[in-house]
Amino acid sequence: MDRSTAPADSERFLVVLNSEEQYSIWPALRQPPAGWRPEGKEGSREECLEHIGTVWTDMRPRSVRLHDEASR
Predict the structure, then answer these.
(1) Segment 48-53 mean pLDDT
(2) Local structure of 72: helix, strand or coil
(3) CA dist 47 to 8, 10, 16, 29, 72, Å?
(4) Which of 2, 27, 51, 71 has the greatest count of CB atoms below 10 A from its CB?
(5) Which residue from 14, 18, 21 is spatially nearest to 51, judged by alpha carbons?
(6) Entry pTM
(7) How many C-beta atoms surround the C-beta of residue 46 within 10 A?
């Protein structure tokens, strides 16, 4: 099947992470954008979003978390 006609739900994604430890998903066949790196999980869109929901428990950027911790 030509990729252009493949169902969207068959597309593979990567979970990507930036330096602020914020998560996103990115098509597996493309290089992540500058400042983002693969986190290690690859799967369907739903699988990747479920993984993010499990591992990203504190939505604050890393710099904010570190500042808050230092202020305590």
Answers:
(1) 98
(2) coil
(3) 14, 12, 13, 17, 36
(4) 51
(5) 14
(6) 0.77
(7) 10
